[in-house]
Amino acid sequence: MNPRLRPYQTYGIALLRVSLGVYYVLHGYYGWLVVGVERLAALNASMGIPLPTVGAWVVLLGHLVGGALLVIGLYTRMGALMNVPIMAGAALLVHFDQGFFMHGVVTNPTTGAAVAGGYEYALFLLLATVAVLLLGGGPLSIDARTRSRMRMGE
Prior knowledge:
Blueprint: H1 9-35, H2 37-46, H3 52-72, H4 76-95, E1 103-108, E2 113-117, H5 120-135, H6 142-152
Antiparallel strand pairs: 1-2
Helix pairs in contact: 1-2, 1-3, 1-5, 2-3, 3-4, 4-5
């Protein structure tokens, strides 16, 4: 790595962590307050996902709580871990049979409503989340500050 860029590595980790966290919080907000638990559970049931209501709550709480942990950098690995199975499920159970590339799929001929098809985006988010799981919160996180205080014996 170019030595002049090394100080910016800290910002790269923080940017990845915070942007993923914001994505998850917004996605959880949308699922909970716009779509609703009942409709999300019905969607899960229509796809044959077992325990559809439980699954809906797991997705919503995982995105909201895990995403918030990522944003603030507290228990970062736990926040990422909460979202890994959710994104793996999204890629494999929801989008895999739609092919790799993301594209619009018309789902309702009457309204013309379209949803994103393809698993590339869910897979990308899964891999980015695994990267944060492996990297941790980075130096610009509450986790790092807590660790440094523990080392100093405070």
